[in-house]
């Protein structure tokens, strides 16, 4: 018996034993008094079995005819055995004029093993993690691409530094995209303002770690990882977005509040916004920051000189010097000065420092070398692999390059566009055969 039927049995038994009245039983079971009398008669005649529903084990009055079910299954097995339930339902309706619901077809296909139901994945449980004890012990870092200026400027990315112990915003930085140089510039500003934190907590973006399958032991470092290692700052990558939920939730808040605050302040560009952000950070932290468990700031002082920081936050690449005292970097050939003291550099590896401001420095054992540029070619490779977060910046670069090439082409055509050549082009469009014979 079901739970409902057991409750009904107890109530009817109380009526038969005259513990309660039939009118009270009708209120308890929400049934009419006449139906209570019927139940009492069935109980006295058949006992507890008289209260069990007679519809149990009986086929439903709304079920489809067995002949129709067999016909549909035969059609599916003959013509649509490799179809899914949705497509099979459409074909039965269009071709055979049999209109049934997709769920009905799915159940019938499962019954004859023509369709295997998908097993629902078990939902992952992410339990909350306790905050760090001190300020600067763990800084969560993330980039948030968004239309921050709501059409007043191009879409850009906001780099957000959140302290794990207090949920306070430590630093904000607007940039075009999540590139290595953008993170280097933002991190340099952070440590100059607050000092060096113990660790940075990021996602698995290609800026932070080498995601290639060949890096199984994780011994290869990205340029950003190399810079943090030289500064003795740990870099930890989260496995899921939920693991660094504080900065993810802060991004949602910033995409609402920061956008509106910049509109009220009349901020319409990246440079203007970066200068204004300090006042917004102070206001935000007064509202949302939490006190740390221990009133101790574990940020470490900076012992590196400005020039050392300038070198650390650069793109450092090793190149081998050729017999002609040349190296090639980023589609540019650099000529080292032909001095006697440079002749021993042949076949040796030297370091190329590419700085965020566009400067290039070539060093050997920490000493800068004089050089000159031989050839340079700037363009985007056809078929270049571009990450989704860098797509906006690459498209802007492509548009600038295309405008430059088109303007140069127009100038070249305007120089050589004499009346005679205009007439020749007009005739060639009218009759290409006659134009070829004339030539």
Feature tags:
439 residues; alpha+beta; Nucleotidyltransferase, domain 5; 5 domains; 5-stranded mixed sheet; 4-stranded antiparallel sheet; 14 helices; 12 strands; elongated; disordered C terminus; ISNCY_transpos; InsJ-like_HTH
Write the layout of secondary structure elements.
Elements: H1 3-16, H2 22-29, H3 33-46, H4 66-79, H5 85-95, H6 102-111, E1 139-146, E2 156-163, E3 169-175, H7 180-194, E4 199-202, H8 223-230, E5 234-237, H9 245-265, H10 270-288, H11 306-312, E6 315-320, E7 326-329, E8 332-336, E9 349-354, E10 360-364, E11 367-368, E12 371-376, H12 391-416, H13 419-430, H14 432-438
Parallel strand pairs: 1-4, 4-5
Antiparallel strand pairs: 1-2, 2-3, 6-9, 7-8, 8-12, 9-10, 10-11
Helix pairs in contact: 1-2, 1-3, 2-3, 5-6, 13-14
Overall tally of domains: 5
Going by CATH, the homologous superfamily of the largest domain would be Ribonuclease H-like superfamily/Ribonuclease H
Multimerization state = single chain
Low-pLDDT stretches are 425-439
Number of H- or I-type helical stretches: 14
Task: Supply the CATH architecture of the largest domain.
Answer: 2-Layer Sandwich
Organism: Photobacterium iliopiscarium
InterPro entries: Homeodomain-like_sf, InsJ-like_HTH, Integrase_cat-core, ISNCY_transpos, RNaseH-like_sf, RNaseH_sf
Protein name: ISNCY family transposase
